[in-house]
Design goal:
The complex is a heterodimer.
Chain A (H helix, E strand, L loop, with lengths): L15 H4 L2 H16 L6 H17 L4 H7 L4 H13 L4 E4 L2 E4 H27 L2 H10 L4 H30 L10 H28 L16 H24 L2
Antiparallel strand pairs in A: 1-2
Helix pairs in contact in A: 2-6, 2-7, 2-10, 3-6, 3-10, 5-6, 7-8, 8-9
Chain B lengths: L12 H26 L3 H15 L3 E5 L2 E4 L3 H8 L1 H17 L8 H26 L4 H30 L6 H33 L36
Antiparallel strand pairs in B: 1-2
Classes of the chains: A mainly alpha, B mainly alpha.
């Protein structure tokens, strides 16, 4: 443990976006995503503008487009589902290259793809400019119950340890000639899961004892209040503010 | 065959907000309940269990025909650390996955409601119900955790269909969605049930105190045998295990 445990999601930097307090970024991203979700799907131009806004933020934070695109791969299973929609949805059909596609299904696919992708990119940008630990601090400053953020903090702190343990078990299985082939091998894997749980849980018990011996009384000490200034809130409000204007405009222009 | 987290834009705003309120109330209740289950130890133990669930979801299980699935872990977590702590662990896993852009910010409440609250309530409820009527031994634990995990997955799919009827944005017939979701999730549930049952069974063999809320009758105590019980003319061992 110690330094150098940053998550691959995070890209260290010194831009203005990196410097904003995490709670401002969290409020901004949630407000932005709500504006996107509230936009009527027929107003395609609005989604283009949202994408442009995010591109500006990415450029300002010096997050390269390739990084964002690679992270978008997490969305792929859902893209497959969305692409299926025009074929299975109801309503009047239109001919596209000789295939009958549902009109409303096409709209639904577009709606889900556009909104899910914009939300994912916004969250990737927050993750790229904020360490996971800082995100949890931000949530705590936004009055999220302290116990919940503590659990999340412990999870993040020990995630690499547990995943490393899991990898070593996989290497151990493989070096004994194990290869998961069929359903019958599930029992072997499930026993590994059991061992992994026992190791994690017992590590938790040891961590708790170590904390007790250092004076833990159920609360973590707050080292830094980290209140954001009005200027920082204003800076963070630029993106959701612009998005809100676009959303309102799209509602006014909607037929 | 992967469980996909609901992203932004799949459900309309009222359903997303409603599910968010349900999730917030559920998490609030579980924070109180977890304090009862674990008191001061909640944060480290629930945190490590959440890390375990996150890691266990990365293991791919072959389920036949070249496809593989992974554990969702709601029922497993509830059986091992208790229902309240279980919901908290799943919620925290989902929260961290939201940071990784897996699952939408506005759909977080829906994801917590479906995969946390519903699957834990159903899975753990069935587990406890069966354990109340079955004899208190290891094979009953296996049967009860198999059934709990098996039903928890289609139950949360059913809840998804219910939410879809209230405010899905895609224009699909409800019957088709229900049939597809539930038939697929019964299959996923069988896998989840087998994995959960074997996992809980092997944990019960080593640490029976970790099967939550159930005191198992201990197996036959270990017997000490002295030299008099052994056959007299044992051939000399190879000197390896002296």
């Amino acid at each position: 443990m110690g330094a150098g445990h940053a998550h691959p999601l995070y890209r260290a930097g010194t831009s203005g976006v990196h410097g904003l307090p995490p709670q401002c970024k969290l409020v901004a991203v949630v407000a932005f995503v709500f504006a996107v979700v509230a936009t009527p799907q027929e107003q395609m131009w609005a989604f283009g503008l949202y994408a442009l806004l995010l591109a500006f933020v990415a450029a300002f934070a010096r997050v390269p487009p390739g990084f964002v695109l690679r992270r978008m791969a997490i969305e792929l299973p859902f893209v497959a589902f969305a692409l299926l929609l025009p074929f299975v949805a109801h309503g009047p059909r239109i001919e596209v290259l000789g295939v009958g596609l549902s009109h409303s299904g096409l709209w639904s696919a577009w709606n889900i793809l556009a909104k899910a992708s914009l939300g994912a990119v916004a969250m990737i940008l927050v993750g790229a400019t904020t360490e996971p630990r800082a995100l949890l601090l931000g949530l705590e400053r936004l009055r999220m119950p302290a116990l919940l953020t503590q659990i999340a903090t412990f999870m993040l702190r020990y995630l690499d340890v547990i995943v490393g343990e899991m990898r070593r078990m996989r290497v151990a299985r493989a070096s004994r000639g194990f290869e998961a082939r069929g359903f019958r091998d599930v029992t072997v894997l499930a026993r590994s899961v059991a061992a992994l749980f026992l190791r994690s849980y017992e590590r938790g018990e040891r961590v708790y004892l170590a904390m007790l011996s250092r004076g833990y009384d159920g609360r973590m000490p707050v080292l830094n209040e980290g209140t954001a200034t009005v200027r920082q809130w204003t800076a963070a409000a630029v993106l959701p503010g612009a998005a809100a204007l676009i959303a309102v405009a799209s509602w006014i222009l909607a037929p | 065959m992967r469980c996909v987290h609901v992203p932004n834009g799949f459900f309309d705003a009222p359903v997303s907000i409603g599910a968010g309120v349900v999730a917030a109330a559920g998490i609030g209740l579980c924070l109180k309940g977890a304090r009862r289950e674990l008191d001061d130890r909640t944060a480290p133990l629930a945190g490590l269990t959440a890390a375990f669930i996150f890691a266990a979801q990365m293991i791919n299980f072959p389920v036949g025909a070249g496809t593989s699935g992974h554990l969702m872990g709601g029922a497993l977590a509830a059986i091992l650390v208790g229902p309240y702590t279980g919901v908290l662990c799943i919620s925290v896993v989902l929260l961290v996955q939201t940071f990784f852009a897996d699952g939408g910010v506005t759909a977080y409440g829906i994801n917590v409601t479906l995969m946390g609250i519903v699957s834990v309530a159903v899975g753990y409820g069935i587990f406890r119900l069966l354990m109340a009527v079955l004899p208190k031994n290891r094979s009953s634990v296996t049967i009860a955790s198999f059934s709990g995990a098996l039903v928890s997955v289609p139950a949360s799919a059913l809840a998804f269909v219910g939410l879809f009827a209230l405010g899905g944005t895609a224009d699909l017939s409800l019957g088709a969605v229900a049939t597809a979701m539930i038939s697929v999730h019964v299959l996923i549930g069988i896998g989840e049930g087998v994995i959960t049952a074997v996992t809980v069974g092997s944990i019960a063999a080593v640490r029976p105190d970790l099967v939550h809320g159930v005191t198992l009758t201990p197996a036959a105590p270990l017997q000490l045998r002295n030299d008099a019980d052994l056959p007299v003319d044992t051939p000399a061992a190879g000197g390896v295990s002296a």
